[in-house]
Amino acid sequence: MENDRLAAFSDGVIAVIITIMVLELKAPQGTGFSALLGAAPTFVSYILSFVYVAIYWNNHHHFFQLVPRVTGGILWANLHLLFWLSLVPFSTAWLGEHHAAALPTALYGVSLLMAAIAWYILQSTIIRSQGQNSALSKAVGRDIKGKISPILYTAGIILAFFSTTGADGIYAAVAILWLIPDRRVEREIDRR
């Protein structure tokens, strides 16, 4: 199968995920600055989640430029990733409403951790299907960011029960880590 259908379906699901997240943003009850300030935690959690979903979409887009053929295993691994990403709006909404509470902060971390694990499974499935000498395998290399992210998410989940601010800081730090452009995939695309 060509990768166009998988990419189009994934783009649609990710668009719906972002739409659901933005629909969860409610206008403040009052008209003053204090009402707007009260909505800040919800807005900040939305921004962080939007950044995460955008990072996944961007990396997905780049990865599938290096995947000439999609197998059944890749389809299922992709659906597994989309499942975990589809739970981000729920964990984002709960975190936004209860930003100082341990369990919503930890659950937010769990949703990020599971998406990271699903990404790793998708990446591994593609490389296994395409071979160790494939363009994607060369581009990914040792994948330091991919290996350190689940460790940091796990630390954030545990820390959530002691310091929600510390856990949120870890989640934001991982997002910043992934915002720093990784040119390996783009170099492989240019070589092709």
UniProtKB/TrEMBL annotation:
Signal peptide: none annotated. Keywords: Ion channel, Ion transport, Membrane, Potassium, Potassium channel, Potassium transport, Transmembrane, Transmembrane helix, Transport. The chain crosses the membrane at residues 6-23, 35-55, 75-95, 102-122, 151-180. It is found in: Membrane. It holds the Pfam family TMEM175. The keyword Transmembrane helix applies. Coiled coil: none annotated. Its main location: membrane. It catalyses: K(+)(in) = K(+)(out). The keyword Manganese does not apply. It is a multi-pass membrane protein. Belongs to the TMEM175 family. This is DUF1211 domain-containing protein. It comes from Acidocella aquatica. The lineage of its organism: Bacteria, Pseudomonadati, Pseudomonadota, Alphaproteobacteria, Acetobacterales.
